[in-house]
Design a protein that fits this description.
The protein is of the alpha/beta class and 333 residues long. It is 38% helix and 16% strand. It folds into two domains: 198 residues, NAD(P)-binding Rossmann-like Domain (Rossmann fold, 3-Layer(aba) Sandwich), CATH 3.40.50.720; 88 residues, UDP-galactose 4-epimerase, domain 1, CATH 3.90.25.10. The strands form four sheets. A seven-stranded parallel sheet has the order 3-2-1-4-5-6-11, sandwiched between helices. A two-stranded parallel ribbon has the order 7-10. It has a two-stranded parallel sheet with strand order 8-13. Helix 5 links the parallel strand 5 and strand 6. Helix 1 packs across helix 7, helix 2 runs parallel beside helix 4 and helix 8 packs across helix 10. The structure holds nicotinamide-adenine-dinucleotide. Nicotinamide-adenine-dinucleotide binds next to helix 1, strand 2 and helix 4.
């Protein structure tokens, strides 16, 4: 069935997105709607009925409240869907030091539930979400998909477990699943736990001193619209089935240089102060990440469109417009 699936045209496709109310998920849902897909989204149940970044889209999206740890709930929600994007996860690295079991339950068991439901429903395509954190500090750059996996945090380990469960379902059960592996993503709606929004919120909020963790690690930042288009390109690629595909811009920048760029975007200079509390344990710090995105280009026709400077300008504008609702806490990269 998967071989016959043509996702060059998304109109009328019955799509299911877990984590659809989140940062990347909401951009993906909006993009799918723009392409004419019929979207159902699993939103993490909250007694208050909050639907995160899908607020206002209740008429366009079939919203199902639930929890990926609940297998029968996930099974019923996926019945009748053609394509499944699985993004729901616990993503904070610091919290994974405190609560590793939660990461196993949500990220590994939750993924197993989604895989099982996709098998039962006979979906034509599933895209499982990995992360560049699974590579750990680069042993060589740029990092291609053959780079060793190094679980430097419980978050990374839980994602490695989930990725392997996904690939095993391709090998053992011929489930047409592809693993998309985004590098650091940024843009409007990202929580201030992440490095770019926390710096922008501090700069725009008018602080005199910018509190940061280590400024030497490097990252490869990808604008969220590009990440979302990468998810759809991977889903549409027959070649990607049973494989991992990196989605990253292919440009490396240190946190220190990122700060300089953000200072120039916002137009105000401040003193940078290292906050011991924001440092990761030594062995857990991922010092260097830079994507080799050749596979995404060759197999899926994907390439990033938004240069870092432009993406940062758009993100700064969003932070300025939403400053009153943003809270600066500890953050992660
Ligand atoms: N943001 C990045 O830089 C980045 C980079 C690489 C990979 N990723 C991956 O992309 C995906 C989306 O991340 P994001 O940055 O949008 O973060 P996010 O926290 O905004 O999204 C995660 C979503 O999962 C949902 N969720 C958490 N636990 C759940 C549960 N038990 N049941 C149902 N839903 C649950 C949350 O409500 C949230 O909407 C994650 O899988 C993450 O690991 C993110």
């Amino acid at each position: 069935m998967s071989e016959g699936l043509d996702l060059t045209d998304w109109s009328g496709r019955k799509v299911f997105v877990t984590g659809g109310e989140g940062f990347i998920g909401s951009h993906l849902v909006e993009r799918l709607l723009r392409h004419g897909a019929q979207v159902r989204a699993l939103v993490h149940y909250s007694p208050s009925g909050r639907v995160g970044w899908l607020e206002g889209l209740q008429d366009d999206v079939d919203i199902v409240q639930g929890d990926v740890r609940d297998g029968s709930r996930v099974r019923r929600a996926i019945e009748g869907r053609d394509v499944v994007f699985h993004l729901a996860a616990l993503i904070g690295i610091p919290y994974s030091y405190d609560a590793p079991e939660s990461y196993v339950q949500t990220n590994v068991v939750g993924t197993q539930n989604v895989l099982d439901a996709c098998r039962a429903a006979g979906v034509a395509r599933m895209v499982h979400t990995s992360t560049s954190e699974v590579y750990g500090t680069a042993r060589y750059v740029p990092i291609d998909e053959e780079h060793p996996l190094q679980p430097q945090s419980p978050y990374s380990a839980s994602k490695i477990g989930a990725d392997m469960m996904a690939l095993s379902h391709y090998h053992a059960f011929e489930l047409p699943v592809a693993v998309v592996r985004p590098f650091n993503t940024y843009g409007p709606r990202q929580s201030t736990r992440a490095v770019i929004p926390t710096i922008l919120a501090q700069l725009i909020g008018g602080v005199e001193q910018l509190h940061l963790g280590s400024t030497t690690p490097t990252r490869d930042f990808n604008y969220v619209e590009d990440t979302a288009s990468g998810f759809m390109a991977v889903a549409a690629s027959h070649r990607a089935i049973g494989h991992v595909v990196n989605i990253g811009a292919g440009r490396e920048i240190s946190i220190g240089d990122l700060v300089k760029l953000l200072i120039s975007v916002v137009g105000r200079d401040v003193e940078v102060v290292t906050d011991e509390e924001r440092l990761r344990p030594t062995g857990s710090e991922v010092e260097r990440l830079l994507a080799n995105n050749e596979r995404a280009h060759a197999w899926c026709g994907w390439q990033p469109e938004v240069p870092l400077e432009e993406g940062l300008r758009r993100t700064a504008e969003w932070v300025r417009d939403n400053l009153s609702s943003l809270r600066v806490r500890g953050y992660h990269v």
